[in-house]
Amino acid sequence: MCLAIPGKIIGIERDDSLMHTGRVNFGGVIKQINLSLVPDANIGDYVIVHAGFAISMVDEDEAQRVFEYLDEIDGMMEEADRQ
Amino acid sequence: MKYIDEYHNPRAVAAFAEKIKSITSRDWNIMEVCGGQTHAIVRHGLDQLLPDRITLLHGPGCPVCVTPLSIIDKAIEIAGRENVIFCSFGDMMRVPGSAGDLFSVKSAGGDLRVVYSPLDALRIAQENPDKEVVFFGIGFETTAPANAMSILQAGLVGLENFSVLSAMVLIPPAMEVILSSDNNKVDAFLAAGHVCTVSGFEQYEELSAGYSVPIVVTGFEPLDIIQGIYMSLAQLEDGRAMVENQYSRSVKREGNAEARRVMEDVLTIVDRRWRGLGMIESSGLAISDKYRQYDAEEKFGKVDDISDQSGECISAEILKGTRKPFDCPAFGTRCTPENPLGATMVSSEGACSAYYSYRKLDLQKTGLE
Ligand code: SF4
Asked: How far away is chain B from the Cα of A82, in angstroms, using its nearest Cα?
């Protein structure tokens, strides 16, 4: 039920507060999405969409964190082994 | 798809599973709060990659499962009225009320529409000015802003034939009920990433400190979930208890300020009954007085508060993490997704339903079926 999926904004249609919408591409499927809850989003940004509304912008730097985290704990474990 | 596929990398998932094995020194119970995570865990067999000493408990995080019988009955009553078009997310159609479900109203000739967004219901209201259009507003913090926005927009365009039947609920009060119960088994929580995307996690910091329980805000893809498990386990093994954010690509500590502002404007916190868990103080969202004209309970009468536990169903214990679906004598026999007896079999995100879809073979192995 709380399923929300990431998609890329490829167009912004109107810019007046509540009806602020854009076209969002979900791996080839393009939908009209309400963007009023992510006022800073621009064309090219990825947003996470639930029930017709973008609820957040994907933070590109943070998105890499998952992969760096593995290397970090590997480093930590090596250090612990050496001690 | 970008931001999905890379989080399915089996090598990275296996690497985390190895790390988890190497640091586990005793028995721990970790509860994933969200039904979407339960579904992903059982479907990808993530629990089966974990050492035996770690048990995943499946929490109350599915709004379809926890919507109380009283509100389902009210929905059925409204949907059956002449002159009403009743709009709902698809998952609610098969949830049993005291007698029948929304689908049976449709078969009997009621005008029911399955919608993807509350905005679809709004459009239907604009297209049908001579009908009353009612949207079934279920959901957690994730969905509440969308529901609230539909009310704001109705106000903006001056729609008079649109209203929302609210069954919205808030997650932290339910987590607190679990933590404060006498037979609580939960050692750590994976908090629901999309709920926290909206609400942030300041409130979780209070819970974590108050009950000395690690809480890791976690995403929904396999790599997110296994990392969330690793992070909560590392806290448990180190004797730490704090809130950590695994899902930082979507969740900020303060959440989505704009969404929270809309919720605060349109909705108000009330006590709400949860199917399986009973009445929980300050755990529901109703439509505030200012927007009373869009409240379906104002238009069609208040929901009667009735309790709703079926005799043999143990879903209340399953939702609290004290028992598992296989412990239920009715599982897979008298209770199936086609004929659900309780909350956790109702939706595909309920624990009983996920086990029924993906784990029936295990049941045969243990000779129970
Ligand atoms: S299998 Fe059915 S009856 Fe048993 S706990 Fe689950 S929902 Fe309730």
From this structure: 16
pLDDT value of residue B338: 85
Give residue B187's pLDDT.
97
ipTM of the complex: 0.88
Domain map (residue ranges) of chain B: 25-314, 315-366
Q: Which residues of chain B have pLDDT under 50?
A: 366-369
Domain B25-314 has CATH 3.40.50.11740: yes
- The candidate with the shortest Cα–Cα distance to B260, out of B168, B350, B141, B121, is B141
Per-residue confidence (pLDDT) for residue A77, from 0 to 100: 61
Task: Report chain A residues whose CB lies below 8 A from the CB of B250.
Answer: 48, 56, 58-59
Question: Does the pLDDT value for residue A75 go beyond 60?
Answer: yes
Q: Do the chains contact at B152 and A18, CB–CB below 8 Å? A: yes
C-alpha distance from A19 to closest chain B C-alpha (Å): 8
> A21: how many CB neighbours lie within 10 A of its CB?
20
Q: What does the DSSP assignment read for chain A?
A: ----EEEEEEEEEE-SGGG-EEEEEETTEEEEEE-TT-TT--TT-EEEEETTEEEEE--HHHHTHHHHHHHHHHHHHHHHHH-
Structural domains in chain A plus CATH codes: 5-82 (2.30.30.140)
Q: Exposed, middle or buried by CB within 10 Å (0-12, 13-18, 19+), for B48?
A: exposed
Task: Please determine, for residue A83, whether its predicted confidence score (pLDDT) is greater than 60.
Answer: no
The closest residue, in CA terms, to atom 1 on ligand 1 is B331
CB contact (8 A) between residue A1 and residue B89 = yes
Atom of ligand 1 nearest to the CA of B332: 1
pLDDT reported for residue B60: 85
What confidence tens digit (pLDDT) does each residue in A37-46 have? 999 999 999 9
Angle between helix axes A65-82 and B222-238 (nearest 10 degrees) is 30
Q: Which residues of B touch A2 (CB under 8 A)?
A: 34-36, 61, 63, 139-140, 142-143, 192, 194-195
pTM value? 0.91
Give the integer Cα–Cα distance in Å for B48 and B284: 35
CB B181 within 8 A of CB B149: no
Residue B217, H or E segment: strand B215-218
> Which of B15, B143, B223 lies nearest to residue A50, judging by beta carbons?
B143
